[in-house]
Prior knowledge:
By secondary structure, the protein is an alpha/beta fold. It contains 6 helices and 31 strands. The N and C termini lie far apart (49 Å). Strand 14 (246-248) and strand 15 form a beta hairpin. The chain has helices at 34-43, 57-64, 84-96, 116-125, 194-204, 224-235; strands spanning 2-6, 27-28, 31-32, 48-53, 73-78, 103-107, 110-112, 130-136, 145-148, 154-158, 170-178, 209-213, 218-220, 246-248, 251-256, 261-262, 267-268, 272-274, 279-280, 285-286, 290-292, 297-298, 303-305, 307-309, 314-315, 320-322, 325-326, 331-332, 337-338, 343-344, 349-350. The longest helix is centred in the first third of the chain and has 13 residues, at 84-96. The site of guanosine-5'-triphosphate has 22 residues, from strand 4 and helix 3. Guanosine-5'-triphosphate is lined by residues 6-13, 23, 52-54, 79, 82-85, 88, 107-109, 222.
Amino acid sequence: MKAIILVGGEGTRLRPLTLHRLKTMVPMAGRPFMEYQLHLLKTHGVREVVLSICHMPGLIRRAFGTGSRYGMKFHYAAETTPLGTAGAIKNAEKFADVSREPVVVLNGDVLTDINLTQMLAQHRRRRARVSIALTLVSDPSAYGLVKQDAQHRILSFVEKPSSDEGQSPWVNAGVYLFDPGAFAHIPAGKPYSAERGLFPDLLAKGERVWGFTNRDYWMDIGTIDRYWQAHMDILEERMFLLPTGKVWKRNRRIRLGQTCTLHTSAHLSPGTVIGDRCRIEREARLGELLVLGNRVRVGAQAVLERSVIWDDVTIGEGARLNGCVVASGSTIGRFAHIRPGTVLGEKSVVPDYSRI
Ligand code: GTP
């Protein structure tokens, strides 16, 4: 089975983290996000992936290359103008060799451990044209709701549910199986949405569209809140962690990269992932649920918790960070306080003693 991953969007809701990189490249607990999706695909036997690209095409090709590093083969299906989700899938068709078997399609911002093998088995059993993974979310208002019959055949879609339409809690998870025949329903070379165009159109034509309801882990990392929450879920072991570094000898829930320097008086807590060549100084306290990228320096008596810190960040003496995201190359001044919900883009500078 082959896969198409849609990674051509601008990721505007994840700004400023996506100003200089694509959503699929943002670090997730020390790895580029896409590696989680590649791991999922490999687990279910996929070795060939079409990356559907548009925005920042050179950057993504340089970052992921031919796929050999992952034991996979990548093709790049590039768009000169955004074709929307279904248009992008059509554009990827020529690389996916869709004549023989179903193709997995992933939105490039979905973190999940969904059982694709079971989904494929249901897809075949139901002889579906398209299968759509469905997940439960606590607030479905931001997602496309799906109404299905008792057998999980999809009856209708509700894109922006009002409160009285909100009875069906299953939402489109952005994970699909496309039968070879599904591609013929997508117009070539023009913008077309899967959610608002193709799927309702297939229903109108009486095509077989099935839901795959599941309670596997699922998070769309497309907003800052959910990007941060995905980290917390990984660190609290609700979702798998792709290992980085090594388990620290004193606590199995702390992972430490290569050649880190930890002062003997520094305090580390469970649910922490530290990258390579970090330096943690005297009496610094790394509280629970923390990710440090590579080459992060944490000054003496700094206190950090529930935060995601990217590479090459310097945190001054006595600084306090809680519930924030700090992108690469940033500098946090001495005794600065960064409050929950703060997101600092790349190369931010926070002056000494400031409160933000
Ligand atoms: P926002 O700008 O924050 O809305 O994000 P987005 O447009 O990057 O993502 P959205 O959630 O709207 O789209 C779902 C997935 O489809 C993401 O992984 C996008 O990268 C991808 N995508 C959206 N539009 C296009 C497109 O025109 N072409 C391609 N190739 N991918 C797309």
